[in-house]
Amino acid sequence: MANSAQARKRARQAVKQNAHNSSLRSELRTAIKRVIKAIEAGDKTAAQSVYRDSVSTVDSIADKKIIHKNKASRHKSRLSAAIKAMA
């Protein structure tokens, strides 16, 4: 347990920040799952429109350093390749 006032405050801030970051990570996973679901449905135009929306979400979360920028690029690249591979 934190003993000093400063340490107690930092512990409170850490809890609040952890909750915020967790919600953003959840938003990221949901955006990626939406694209995957659209790809599995087989509708290329729908998948492309969902992908465009997801890219902005992924980029904003990477800009906030919730995930690394290379991880964001990897997700975008793989989703884009999956859409391009659709018949």
Tell me what you see in this structure.
The protein is mainly α and 87 residues long. The protein is built from three helices and no strands. The radius of gyration is 18 Å and the shape is elongated. The N and C termini lie far apart (58 Å). One of its GO terms (molecular function) is small ribosomal subunit rRNA binding. It comes from Gallionella capsiferriformans (strain ES-2) (Gallionella ferruginea capsiferriformans (strain ES-2)). This is Small ribosomal subunit protein bS20.
DSSP summary: helix tally: 3
Number of domains: 1
Structural class: mainly alpha
* CATH topology category name: Methane Monooxygenase Hydroxylase, Chain G, domain 1
Task: Please tell me what the overall shape is.
Answer: elongated
What is the CATH level 1 assignment? Mainly Alpha
The count of β-strands is 0
Low-confidence stretches: none
Portion in helices:
over 70%
What is the beta-strand fraction? under 5%
Protein name: Small ribosomal subunit protein bS20
InterPro entries: Ribosomal_bS20, Ribosomal_bS20_sf
Keywords: Ribonucleoprotein, Ribosomal protein, RNA-binding, rRNA-binding
Family: Belongs to the bacterial ribosomal protein bS20 family.
Question: Summarize this, please?
Answer:
The chain has 87 residues and is mainly α.
Task: Furnish the topology, listing elements before pairings.
Elements: H1 5-41, H2 44-63, H3 69-84
Key descriptive features of the protein:
Methane Monooxygenase Hydroxylase, Chain G, domain 1, 3 helices, elongated, mainly alpha, 87 residues, Ribosomal_bS20_sf, 0% strand, ribosomal protein
